[in-house]
Each structure stands twice: as C-alpha cells, then as structure tokens.
Write a structure and sequence with these properties.
By secondary structure, the chain is an alpha/beta fold. Helices cover about 15% and strands about 35% of the residues. It has helices spanning about 15-25, 70-80; strands spanning about 10, 25-30, 35-40, 45-50, 60-65, 90, 95-105, 110-115. The protein is globular and about 45 Å long.
C-alpha cells in the first residue's frame, strides 16, 4: 500500500540548497551522499539530486505542501527574509485553499496551502 510520496527536485549546489531549506525549517539527513540531499520537516520530506548544468529559468520543478498554521508560516518566512514569489502572495483560492509560493535557488516552485473550506 502507498504510504507517502517524496518529490525529487534538481539542485545545482548542495550547500546552497541545504541552507535555503534549513532556513525554511527543514533538517538535512546525515547521509553522506555527495550529489544527493534529503531534507525533512516533520513528516514532510523533499529530496534533491545534483544537476550542475541546470538553467534555473528553464526549471519547472514544483511541489505543493499542505500545512496548518499557514498565515504564521507565511509571516515567519517573511521575518526570515525568504522571498515570496511575485505571483504567490498569501491569498484565498476559489478551490478552497489559502496559499503562498516561493522559489528556491534553482527555481523549484514550492507552494504552501491550507484548506479553508468552500
């Protein structure tokens, strides 16, 4: 039976990606793989594979993270200096979610959402 899903996204520089996601509240596993990174926050996990030739502006990697306490998370990220995507400010959507989005250093789009009900 399926128990979880873990996205695998491209990264150019492991240290840069690790720092960015650490600032978001994730912790890196101490795996020792030089070209692979696993980040975890509670039960949420995101993996990254090295892609040195990635052109960030041509990257369409995306992850949707469902969460609770979305407004607090949004304000925490702003306090930490995390840039909110220009088209991803905190807003209520017609599909019953409140959302905001950020881009990581490799232009992977990370959208955070919380159910608001319809």
């Amino acid at each position: 039976m399926i128990e979880s899903i873990i996205p695998k996204l491209p990264m150019r520089h492991k240290a840069m990606t690790e720092k960015f996601y650490t600032d978001l509240g994730f912790e890196a596993s101490k795996d020792g793989f030089p070209h692979y990174l696993m980040m975890k926050n509670g039960t949420v996990e995101i993996h990254f594979f090295e892609f040195k030739d990635l052109i960030p502006e041509q990257n369409y990697g995306q992850v949707y993270v469902r969460c609770s306490g979305l407004e607090e998370l949004y304000h925490l990220y702003i306090e930490r200096g995390i840039t909110i995507h220009p088209a991803g400010n905190l807003s209520s959507k017609p599909w019953g979610q409140k959302e905001f989005s950020i881009l990581d250093p490799d232009h992977n789009l990370i959208t955070f959402g919380e159910a608001t009900g319809l």
